[in-house]
Amino acid sequence: MVSISSPLSLLIYLALRLSKAPGKMVENSLLPGRAIYDFVILLSSQFGFILYLVWAFIPESWLNSLGLTYWPQKHWTVALSLYLLITVVIGYVLLFGINMMSTPSLNSIHTITDNYAKNQQQKKYQEVAIPALRVISASEVNQMLFLAAKDLYTKN
Amino acid sequence: MEDERSFSDICGGRLALQRRYYSPSCREFCLSCPRLSLRSLTAVTCTVWLAAYGLFTLCENSMILSAAIFITLLGLLGYLHFVKIDQETLLIIDSLGIQMTSSYASGKESTTFIEMGKVKDIVINEAIYMQKVIYYLCILLKDPVEPHRISQVVPVFQSAKPRLDCLIEVYRSCQEILAHQKATSTSP
């Protein structure tokens, strides 16, 4: 089990996980390839981090003298990490907003029924057997709860 | 016959439910919401005026102060006319239909009528509202093409939002009328 120690390794891990077929998700913990997969992530994330530190701290002149001249501007070292941080903060707000948007409103039909309940088959009632599992409509539930059992909900 | 009881809404404010039984096939339920409180009005006015004064000290433009007064007045009028509902009424007439009236604080009334042929049932439904799970009364409408399907959900008492005890009272009365209506409609 790899420990997600840096955001870079988290990003690489997510990218590799999402590129695999969804059907294989269940077997991941049993495959021996899993350990190699984790090790690759560890090495690449550590390498990426060291590279980032080199790019940020070592002056241009030293890098140029080594022959490595084609780097992006150093301004981006600060800018990228700041962008990442703000993205994480906005992610909290975004997730909250997505939650609120996907909650059905009070006048939506999805609070009462859904496609499965509409298309369910009515099985015949047999005397001895346990009745089949089915979705009970809102009207029946209301009658059972509020009309039949008179003192269940009227206590203040 | 008239009957008045007090209940509370989901936030804890006091509601008054007035029930009028005009006849065995016609009933009316009137829910009165709590009035606009002086405390909240002064709080909003003070914050708006303090903010305007703060802007004035920054910009040295006295138009901001008069604009703030204007905004407060217009905002109050708009709130009373479009947002603040004083009373909500549900009138059920057996063979005719269901009428919902909302009267606003400025005196405006808005009415919705649903004919009985479209009404499938009135139920108490639970749903997630903001950060709570609330009970609310809603009218289920039939699909004209297929009578066993529900085509639309119309919630009632949307701005009063009473609690379950009040809803059960209204639900039982409505179900008596609907049962009466079904019995008379199926008999030839």
TrEMBL record, chain B:
Transmembrane segment boundaries: 36-56, 62-82
Instruction: Give every Phosphatidylinositol N-acetylglucosaminyltransferase subunit H conserved domain span.
Output: 89-158
Task: List the keywords (alphabetical).
Answer: Membrane, Transmembrane, Transmembrane helix
Protein name, per record: Phosphatidylinositol N-acetylglucosaminyltransferase subunit H conserved domain-containing protein
Its domain of life?
A: Eukaryota
Q: Where is the signal peptide?
A: none
Q: In which pathway does it act?
A: Glycolipid biosynthesis; glycosylphosphatidylinositol-anchor biosynthesis
Please give the InterPro entries that the UniProt record associates with this protein: PIG-H, PIGH-H_dom
- Biological-process GO terms, alphabetical: GPI anchor biosynthetic process
Family to which this protein belongs: Belongs to the PIGH family.
